[in-house]
Design a protein that fits this description.
The complex is a heterodimer of chains A (111) and B (141). Chain A is an alpha/beta fold. Chain A has helices at residues 26-38, 56-71, 83-91, 104-109, and strands at 3-8, 11-16, 20-21, 43-47, 53-54, 75-79, 100-101. Chain A has four helices and seven strands. The relative contact order of chain A is 0.19. Chain B has 141 residues and is an alpha+beta fold. Chain B is globular, with a radius of gyration of 15 Å. The chains are: A alpha/beta (111), B alpha+beta (141). The A-B interface holds A 19-20, 22-24, 53, 55-57, 59-61, 63-64, 66-67, 84, 87-88, 91-93, 97 and B 16-17, 19-20, 23, 41-42, 45, 48-49, 52-53, 56, 59-60, 101, 103, 106-109, 111-112, 114-115, 118.
Chain lengths: 111, 141
């Protein structure tokens, strides 16, 4: 899967450069987040600007990243969700779990 | 079948790489419905989502990730009702036996069936000759 990764103010930003985050590709995002936390990184921001479609596996990968963050005393936050993607977090009540920001800049201010 | 009905019959290998193809076909069908008065973008997303979740169940569980098996999908729109049937020729995986997710617990898995049931009006899984079918319907207003 296409992921662009950059570091800003000690926050790793993962830009998911895919239209779909689903059962076919979400395993890659899950392992990438796991790798970063195991390397000792503490703060990850996942930017979902390009993601138009997410399924339960995509949500599951983000939940896995969130749990990884907690077990490594880190943080995982989300930014720039498209409307339909955001509604999936609401349907599955995951909007109560994740900190979701309308822009990358706002998310970065809140780490 | 009435003349204004749409029926799309697709078979793809039992592999997740075909999820986006099937999802896209579902979205295109939603956009073609001439009588639908609701939010078309949401309907398109929902059809894509239900097809994706149902196919993943067939690929990973019913057909036990065997890449040589096939998944058979039939999408029917007739009498203002959308029906999606996903056939598997595996051992079966009765989604009605899956409990709803516990929202207080953060599990990686277990949301797919909940999503299907939230979107569709009726969901049933039954045995047929040579396999099983997951049959899901939604009224279109």
């Amino acid at each position: 899967m296409n992921l662009n990764i950059e570091t800003r103010n000690e926050v790793i930003i993962i830009y998911v450069k895919e239209e779909r985050l689903d059962a076919h590709n979400s395993g890659d995002l899950k392992s990438e987040m796991q790798r970063l936390f195991e390397e000792g990184k503490k703060n990850i921001l996942v930017d979902l600007h390009d993601v138009r479609f997410i399924d339960s596996s995509g949500l599951g990968a983000l939940v896995s990243g969130f749990k990884n963050a907690i077990s490594h005393q880190g943080n995982l936050k989300l930014a720039t969700l498209q409307t339909q993607v955001k509604s999936m977090f609401e349907l599955t009540r995951l909007h109560r779990v994740f900190e979701i920001f309308p822009s990358t800049a706002e998310a970065l201010e809140n780490f | 079948m009435e003349k204004r009905a749409i029926e799309v019959d697709i078979k793809v290998p039992n592999q997740t790489r075909y999820l986006s193809l099937i999802g896209r076909i579902g979205e295109d069908i939603a956009k073609e419905l001439d009588k639908f008065g609701g939010d078309r973008e949401t309907l398109a997303y929902h059809i894509n989502l239900v097809l994706t979740e149902a196919m993943v169940n067939a690929i990973k569980y019913a057909n036990a990730e065997d890449p040589d098996k096939m998944v058979h999908i039939m999408i029917t729109i007739a009498d203002s009702e959308l029906t999606i049937r996903v056939y598997d020729d595996g051992q079966g995986f009765d989604i009605n036996s899956i409990p709803p997710p516990d929202f207080e617990k953060l599990e990686d898995r277990g949301r797919g069936v909940f999503i299907i049931k939230s979107i569709m009006d009726s969901v049933r899984y039954r045995k047929i000759d040579g396999g099983n079918v997951l049959e899901m319907s939604k009224r279109l207003h």
